[in-house]
Design brief:
Structural class: alpha+beta
Distance between the termini: 26 Å
Radius of gyration: 33 Å
Largest sheet: 6 strands, mixed, barrel
Order of helices and strands: HHEEHHEHEEHEHEHEEEHEHEHHHHH
Helix content: 55-70%
Number of strands: 12
Strand order of the largest sheet: 4-5-10-7-9-8
């Protein structure tokens, strides 16, 4: 038989068992659709992370409280040294030398003065410093209430974070110094309290943790962050107000540092690290005993993209496993088909069909099932990506490479798992096949 004739017979055989063919393709369809959907979500997440970092600038450093490791046995901890008296110094030293274990604890010693001194001392490498303290709070306007995030900061925050005030104004230095109850709201706050993200809260008095705050202005929409969080669900208040009146805290959650240029970031990081170690009276070794952590936007982007890539890979692996399961389903159905068509195979061999013709016919059947299932799966995956983007607001990017790989893999799965049934059919003896009932 010629290849065209083998193809015609294979199509006719599949058409005679439409339901079985459709059910056989189902595993391939689901596997390919999931692969394309997962890759689209992963690529969209990576692009969102990159866009977020680029919108903030690549010369941004984030100083946050760190988990320092206290090495007992080689270095006396700062708390023990400070508290030791001459009478207990020997006991402390003995205890330290007798132990070689280490422990870690979360510490937070970041203060407003830290940010002020950094801005004053490193003018060549540091352009602006914005302290930040944040927490979830309850907000209320009339009968509407919601949970939102409040961020206490200073006048430098809009410049460091690259945000704008679209209506009204930002708070002033006098309002920061006076710890006044004023705030600037994101558009999601208006949606929570008035049911309209385009509403203007400027001039209204809202309650933050049961305290009245005057809304000075509205922030420009920022959209979703790198992890999908709503960046517009936020209230900015003077940092002194947040620390003294709302959250009752002494220490900051972050110090945001905008360096003069991206090239100055390594030097700024080195200078700030050395400065904070001296200022906080930290003992060596470093960086184990640091009570802070400095990360750049590039580091955060690489970390987030690494996590996103790992999750995409794991989910893709699950989808590939489903493709393998679909391939096993193809092999099972093809074995059933060979058994059912044994007499047909015997007749074809009796009238001149070679084992190669029979092998080619069943391989074509398996390839058609997997390739057609792959094409349907591609359509389902692309459609799912579009629906997630339009209806759920997810950022998805359909990757052409993933589509090409899905087509190749789906066809390869059919051929690979169709080899054994086709070989079994080709190996049948014509006489035995004709006698089969």
């Amino acid at each position: 038989m010629k290849i065209f004739e083998c193809f015609r017979i294979a199509v006719r055989g599949l058409a005679n068992n439409k339901m079985r063919t459709a059910l056989t393709m189902l595993g391939i369809i689901m596997g390919v659709a999931v692969v394309i959907l997962v890759v689209a979500i992963g690529e969209g997440a990576k692009q969102r992370i990159t866009d977020t970092v680029n919108s903030l600038g690549t010369n941004l450093l984030n100083i946050s409280p760190g988990r320092n490791t206290i090495r007992v046995g080689s270095v006396v901890t700062r708390a023990s040294t400070a508290a030791a008296t001459p009478a207990t110094a020997g006991t402390t030293a003995a205890t330290s030398s007798a132990s070689s274990s280490s422990s870690s604890s979360q510490t937070n010693h970041l203060t407003l003065d830290d940010g002020k001194v950094i801005a004053q001392n490193f003018t060549k490498t540091v352009e602006a410093v914005a302290p930040q303290i944040d927490s979830n709070v309850q907000i209320r306007l009339g009968s509407a209430d919601a949970s939102s995030e409040v961020i206490g900061t200073t006048l430098e925050y809009p410049y460091v974070k690259n945000i704008e005030v679209t209506s009204g104004r930002y708070f002033t230095q006098d309002e920061v110094d006076g710890s006044l109850k004023v705030c600037v709201a994101g558009v999601t706050i208006a949606d929570h309290l008035l049911g309209d993200p385009n509403a203007d809260l400027t001039g209204k008095v809202i309650q933050i943790n049961h305290q009245n705050f005057t809304v000075l202005g509205m922030l420009a929409p920022k959209g979703s962050g790198s992890w999908g969080q709503d960046q517009d669900d936020v209230l900015l208040v003077p940092v002194t107000t947040a620390m003294r009146r709302v959250l009752n805290r002494r220490f900051l959650d972050n110090l945001l540092i905008r360096c003069t240029t991206p090239a100055m970031m390594p030097l700024a990081q080195e200078q700030i690290s050395a400065f904070l170690r001296v200022r906080h009276r930290l003992p060596p070794p470093f960086p184990d005993n640091d009570d802070f952590r400095i990360r750049s936007q590039t580091d955060l982007m690489e970390t987030q993209q690494s996590v996103t890539g790992t999750m995409t890979m794991l989910l893709s692996l699950v989808a590939v496993i489903s493709l393998v399961v679909g391939g096993i389903g193809i092999m099972n159905i093809m074995l059933v088909s060979v058994t059912e068509r044994t007499r047909e195979i015997g007749i074809r061999k009796a009238i001149g069909a070679t084992p190669r013709d029979i092998l080619l016919q069943f391989l074509i059947e398996a390839a058609i099932i997997s390739l057609l299932g792959g094409l349907i799966g591609i359509g389902a995956g692309v459609t799912g990506s579009i629906l997630l983007s339009t209806l759920a607001g997810w950022s998805t990017i359909v990757n052409a490479t993933a589509i090409f790989a899905a087509v190749v893999v789906s066809a390869g799965v059919g051929i690979f798992f169709g080899i054994y049934p086709a070989s079994k059919a080709a190996a049948l003896h014509p006489i035995d096949a004709l006698r089969y009932e």
